[in-house]
Every structure is written in structure tokens, then in C-alpha cells.
């Protein structure tokens, strides 16, 4: 049984679908609206749970209705929410605009996510019955993720960091990161205009001193191991909504590592789950369900043997 701890954000997604996004001062008529569960941390936790992992979620929610909705969703998905603190104020929300070509724009309101406590995060990792991989992002204070990663290292667990939303990563946090998983836009922001070509990827991985996986959307992903870049393709699918695809990838990648898969096999599992998710609308609602997720897991495991 793979054991994953996710320290990160919990949001309620407010998703508007329209043929195009309005310009400044403009109003357009949308096609439809939906409310869903999101936050990069919560998304990754749900994807990991659907792949059969034992998952502990560490974060914070407010004292509003969105908090009750979030906790009920974790219970329904089989995610242990004992690491979720209740704080005064609003929970995190994320208004999302999705255009006809499936591209999205997201505004994240941190709310309670900005109040995740480092000591609480460290304690949750230290007291988890078992932990193979700890996952973090940048939607909560880096100090909390740093504390969780430090506790992970003390327990011999590996760490995976999604640098999203893109921001400078504190040196101490990067030093405790085993795998950094940006998308192309985040890589460019972190590397000061860095492009995802082979030489640049090798140099950047050497500079930061971590394993590096770059998600490339419809082109799949690139992984840097021992100074060598390997590109793994994604299947051709009819993309409807790309929201949350990166989180599906990271949640699945973490489970692959926790299962003892090699990094390339873990990336293939991530690509499979992410590619499947973009064929449906929504964030967590678009992720492969448990049956389909376990089929992906079994297929990747068979290819790796």
C-alpha cells in the first residue's frame, strides 16, 4: 500500500465556461457555470487516493460553508483529513475561466490556505502511521512546506514539489526537494526565460540539485535523470478542459514513486491520469475514477516489469 502525505491548499473552484474571456471593461455571455473542489494540494490528494494510496491531507480551511463542503468531499474520497486545521475566516476559493479551446485562467484567493502552520504540518508528517512520499506546492506558506519536507527527510520519505503558482523557491525548501515538477510556464518563470530544450533542462537540473520533471501538456513530459533528458509522449485525446491536469499528474507521479516504480514509470502513470482528465470538464470531477485509475496503475506496473 503506497502512503502519501500532501501538504497544501484546499479551494472551492468557481468555474465559468465561455467561448472567449472578456477583455478589460467587457462583459461576455458564458455558456455554463459549475462549482467544484480544488486547490492544488486537495487535487493531488484525491488523485492519489483514487489510485489506491493511503493519503493524509495537511492544510487549513475556514469557518464557512466551503469548509464543510471540503471536509465532506475528503471523507467521500477516502482522504484522511485529520491534518486539516479549522481557522477563522474564509476558506480558499479559485474563480476559473475556461475558453472553448480548453485553456484556462485561474485566480486563487488564499483565504485559510495562507494560515497553514509549519509546526502542525511537521507534526502531521511525523505522526502519520507510514509515509513514502510527501507532496507540496506553493499555494500555502513555504515555511509550512519546508517543515513538512524536513519531517519527511527524517522519516526517509521522498519529497515532490510543484512550483505553482510560480514564485522564487526558498533555498532551504529546494534543498529538501527530491523532485521538482513544473509545467513549461512555471519552468520559464523559475529559470528566467528558460526553454524546455535538452541542454537547458540538464543545466537547470544540475543548478537546482533535484530530480526534474517538466509537464508539457499534449506533448507529455520530460524527465531529467543523471544528465539525460527523456521525453515521454502523451496519448492523443479530445481535450475539453485542462483545469487540474497538472495536479492529476503530480498525484499519480507521487503514487508511482510510493509504489517503488522508477521515475519514468511514475511519469507514465502521471501522463495517463492527466491525459484522461482533460477529456472531461471540471477539476477533481474530471479525474479518472477509482476503477479507471487502478487500471492505469496496473497497466503501467505491467509495462515496468
Description:
- By secondary structure, the chain is of the alpha/beta class.
- The protein has one domain: 3-Layer(aba) Sandwich (UDP-N-acetylmuramoyl-L-alanine:D-glutamate ligase), CATH 3.40.1190.20.
- 37% of the residues lie in helices and 23% in strands.
- The protein contains ten helices and 13 strands.
- The strands form two sheets. Strands 5-4-1-8-9-10-11-12-13 form a nine-stranded mixed β-sheet, with helices on both faces. A four-stranded mixed β-sheet has the order 3-2-6-7.
- A hairpin with a 2-residue loop joins strand 12 and strand 13.
- Helix 1 packs across helix 8, helix 3 runs parallel beside helix 4 and helix 9 runs antiparallel to helix 10.
- The relative contact order is 0.16.
In short:
The chain is α/β, with parallel strands linked by helices and 305 residues long. It has ten helices and 13 strands.
Reconstruct the topology from this structure.
Layout: E1 3-7, E2 11-17, E3 32-38, H1 40-50, E4 54-61, H2 65-77, E5 80-86, E6 92-98, E7 104-106, H3 118-127, E8 133-136, H4 142-154, E9 158-161, H5 171-175, E10 179-180, H6 184-190, H7 198-208, E11 211-215, E12 221-225, E13 228-232, H8 245-258, H9 263-277, H10 290-304
Parallel strand pairs: 1-4, 1-8, 2-6, 4-5, 8-9, 9-10, 10-11
Antiparallel strand pairs: 2-3, 6-7, 11-12, 12-13
Amino acid at each position: 500500500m503506497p502512503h502519501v502525505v500532501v501538504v497544501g491548499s484546499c479551494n472551492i473552484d468557481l468555474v465559468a465556461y465561455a467561448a472567449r474571456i472578456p477583455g478589460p471593461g467587457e462583459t461576455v455571455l458564458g455558456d455554463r457555470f459549475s462549482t467544484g473542489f480544488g486547490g492544488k494540494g486537495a487535487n493531488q490528494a484525491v488523485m492519489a487516493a483514487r489510485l489506491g494510496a493511503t493519503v493524509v491531507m495537511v492544510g487549513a480551511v475556514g469557518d464557512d460553508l466551503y469548509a464543510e463542503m471540503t471536509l465532506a468531499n475528503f471523507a467521500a474520497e477516502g482522504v484522511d483529513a485529520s491534518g486539516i486545521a479549522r481557522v477563522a475566516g474564509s476558506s480558499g476559493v479559485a474563480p476559473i475561466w475556461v475558453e472553448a479551446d480548453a485553456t484556462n485562467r485561474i485566480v486563487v484567493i488564499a483565504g485559510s490556505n495562507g494560515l497553514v502552520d509549519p509546526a502542525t504540518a511537521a507534526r502531521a508528517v511525523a505522526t502519520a502511521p507510514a509515509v513514502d512520499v510527501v507532496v507540496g506546492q506553493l499555494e500555502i506558506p513555504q515555511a509550512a512546506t519546508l517543515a513538512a519536507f524536513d519531517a519527511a527527510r527524517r522519516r526517509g520519505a521522498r519529497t515532490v514539489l510543484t512550483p505553482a503558482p510560480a514564485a522564487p523557491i526558498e533555498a532551504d525548501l529546494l534543498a529538501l526537494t527530491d523532485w521538482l515538477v513544473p509545467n513549461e510556464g512555471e519552468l520559464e518563470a523559475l529559470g528566467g526565460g528558460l526553454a524546455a530544450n535538452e541542454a537547458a533542462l540538464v543545466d537547470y537540473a544540475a543548478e537546482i540539485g533535484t530530480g526534474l520533471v517538466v509537464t508539457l501538456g499534449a506533448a507529455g513530459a520530460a524527465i531529467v535523470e543523471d544528465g539525460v533528458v527523456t521525453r515521454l509522449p502523451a496519448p492523443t485525446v479530445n481535450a475539453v478542459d485542462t483545469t487540474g491536469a497538472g495536479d492529476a499528474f503530480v498525484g499519480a507521479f507521487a503514487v508511482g514513486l510510493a509504489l517503488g516504480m522508477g521515475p519514468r514509470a511514475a511519469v507514465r502513470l502521471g501522463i495517463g491520469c492527466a491525459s484522461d482528465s482533460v477529456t472531461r470538464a471540471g477539476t477533481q470531477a474530471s479525474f479518472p475514477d477509482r476503477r479507471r485509475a487502478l487500471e492505469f496503475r496496473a497497466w503501467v506496473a505491467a509495462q515496468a516489469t
